[in-house]
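Ticket #4471: structure export looks truncated?
Reporter: QA, pipeline team
Priority: medium

Steps to reproduce: submit the single chain below to the structure queue and open the exported record.
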Amino acid sequence: MIDTRAPDSSGARALSPGTPRRHPTNTTALFYRDRARQAEADADSATLDNVRSRWLRAAKAWDEMATRAEKTAERRSVNEEAKALAGEDDD
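Actual output as written to the record:
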């Protein structure tokens, strides 16, 4: 299905009313976790020690990236909440 809604000034497509917004960072963290699990599975199926080690290093790196993305999303949420509260105080 082609999205025919006009993009906003940033170029992003507008969401339909009632469409839940998914924070991109949360999606990114999920992607990183999925890649980590896949790397672990690849490590389990590897027959060479150096290949297994490489996959395990990759899994660790993906997990670390997911953790950073989750922390960033949490900080962003706290910052947005603080800005919203500050905006209410100005009224």
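Status: closed, not a bug. The export was complete when the record was re-opened. Leaving a note from the reviewer for reference: Residues 1-15 have pLDDT under 50 and may be disordered.
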